[in-house]
Design goal:
- The protein has two helices and ten strands; from the N terminus they run αββββββαββββ.
- By secondary structure, it is of the alpha+beta class.
- It has one domain: Porin (Beta Barrel).
- An eight-stranded antiparallel β-barrel has the order 1-3-4-5-6-7-9-10.
- Strand 5 and strand 6 form a beta hairpin.
- The chain is elongated, with a radius of gyration of 18 Å.
- The chain starts with a helix and ends with a strand.
Length: about 180
């Protein structure tokens, strides 16, 4: 009996959450609104993603890599935002700057998918190479308030520069977004 009551309570809360999601996302993702976002990334690879516009900290074999950055977007139509991102990365004293240009679309106003181009520059870090990635990302937008969403998801960064690396990087990300 307890299992049945628990299952019923979870179902009712789930339906209530979907209804609240529909109401809260209606104004947050409309044409003319803005998006400001910070992401955390937990990536595969030796130090994760070397062109990061999010917040990250990696430490491997006494080498510490940290990054800080953010992204902003403008909704050119309902559920579709054009985004720009900037970031600063430190690789044990050597630094780089990152940039990102892309688009983010919210399927059913709840499932964000993103495609972007991410690059980095920093002579002390990359030498003569200019790393460049094509990023593909998908997830879920949980609106905890009318203008605040938490967006967990998966991201794959496909290397566009074989001279720098030919490896792709898979990341689990958690994004925190403000909608205006």
């Amino acid at each position: 009996m307890k299992k049945l009551l628990f299952t019923a309570a979870v179902a009712v809360l789930g339906f209530a959450n979907v209804s609240a999601q529909e109401e809260s996302t209606s104004s947050a993702l409309t044409k003319g609104s803005w998006l400001v976002e910070a992401n955390t990334g937990f990536g595969a690879g030796e130090f994760g993603h070397t062109a990061n516009t999010g917040i990250g900290l990696y430490s491997v074999d006494d080498t510490t890599v940290w990054s800080v950055g953010g992204e902003a977007g403008y909704f050119i139509m309902d559920d579709l935002a054009i985004k720009l991102g900037l970031g600063y990365n430190d690789f044990d004293g050597a630094s780089s700057f990152s940039y990102k240009v892309g688009a983010k679309y919210y399927i059913a106003s709840q499932f964000p998918v993103q495609i972007d181009l991410t690059g980095a520059s920093g002579d002390d870090v990359f030498g003569d190479e200019t790393p460049l990635w094509l990023g593909l990302q998908g997830g879920y937008a949980w609106f905890v308030a009318d203008n605040i969403s938490i967006e967990p998801g998966l991201r794959y960064n496909l290397s566009m520069n074989e001279d720098f690396t030919d490896e792709g990087i898979l990341e689990f990300r958690v994004g925190f977004a403000l909608h205006f």
